[in-house]
Amino acid sequence: MAATKSRPLSPHLTIWRWGPHMLVSILHRATGIALSIAGLAILTWWLVALAQGQETYANFTKMASSPIAIIVLVGLTWSFFQHLLSGIRHLVMDSGAAFELGINKTFAILTIVGSLLLTALVWFYILGVRA
Amino acid sequence: MSIGKSATPIGKVRGLGSAREGGEHWISERVTSIALLLLGIWLIASLLFLPDLHRQTVIEWFHAPSAVVPMALLIVVGFRHALDGMKVFVDDYVHEPGNNFAVNTLLLFLAVGGGALALYALGAVAFGANA
C-alpha cells in the first residue's frame, strides 16, 4: 500500500529486552516454517522413494544417514518438539489462562527445556541404543 | 440498542451481535494442531518402535490399515496446518494486496500438490504389489 509508506511503525525487535516468552514466540514461528517446508518435503520424499522401488529407497536412506542429513533431521526433531510444546502453550493461552508474568515465563522456559530433552532422548535412542 | 436506526456506522453495528463467521482460519489452525499433536507423536513413536526402516519392513507396516489410515490423516491434516500457519506468516509480511494474493495462491497450490503427491505415494505403497 503506497499511501502507508511514511506512517509510524510500532517499536520492533531491536527495542525489547529479550526474555524466554519472546524467544519462544519467535521459535514457534521459525520452527513452524521449518516443519512446513523441510519437514513436509522430507516426509513426502521418503514416501515417494518408498513407492519408487528398492534402488531409489536405498539411495534415499544412504543420503538420509549422511552426517549433514543427521544434523538436519536432529534439527527437525527439535523443531517438532519445540513447536508441539509451544503450541500446547498457545492453546492454554487461547483459553485465557497463563498470562500472569510468572507462570507465562515458567511455561516458556519449560517448552525450551522439554524440547531439548525430548530431542536428546529420541536421538540417544536412535544413535545409541538401536544403531 | 439501536438496530439500524442510528445515523453513525458504529451505532448501526451496536446490538447486532457478532457476524458468526470470520474465525474459520483461526479455528482451523487450532483444531488441526490438536489432531497433529496425536498424529505427530504417533508417527515418531511408530518409526522408533519399528524393528528397522528397511523398505520391506516399512512396506509391510503400511499394508496394515492401522498404519495407512493415520499416515493418510497426517498428510492431509499436516499440509492443511502448514498452509494455515504459512498464511499467517505471509499476511504479516506481504502487505501489498496483489503480492499477498499471489504468494498465498502459490502456497495453496504447493500444499495441495504436495499433499496429493504424498497421498499418491502412500497409496502406491499400501495397495501396490511391491516388487
CATH T-level topology of chain A: 3 helical TM bundles of succinate and fumarate reductases
Mean pLDDT across all residues of chain B, rounded? 91
Count of discrete alpha- or pi-helical segments spanning 4 or more residues of chain A = 4
Q: Give the N-terminus to C-terminus distance of chain B in angstroms.
A: 72 Å
The appropriate CATH architecture of chain A is Up-down Bundle
Helix content of chain A: over 70%
The tally of domains of chain B stands at 1
Q: What letter string, H or E per element, gives the SSE order of chain A? A: HHHH
How much of the polypeptide of chain A forms β-strand, as a percent range? under 5%
The helix/strand class of chain A is mainly alpha
List keywords for this structure.
heterodimer, A: 131 residues, mainly alpha, 3 helical TM bundles of succinate and fumarate reductases, 4 helices, 78% helix, elongated, B: 131 residues, 5 helices
Report on the structure:
The complex is a heterodimer of chains A (131) and B (131). Chain A has one domain: Fumarate reductase/succinate dehydrogenase, transmembrane subunit (3 helical TM bundles of succinate and fumarate reductases). Chain A is 78% helix and 0% strand. Chain A is elongated and about 55 Å long. The termini of chain A are far apart. The model of chain A has no long low-confidence stretch (mean pLDDT 92). With 131 residues, chain B is mainly alpha-helical. Chain B has one domain: Fumarate reductase/succinate dehydrogenase, transmembrane subunit (3 helical TM bundles of succinate and fumarate reductases), CATH 1.20.1300. Chain B is 76% helix and 0% strand. Chain B is built from five helices and no strands. Chain B starts with 8 loop residues before the first helix and ends with a helix.
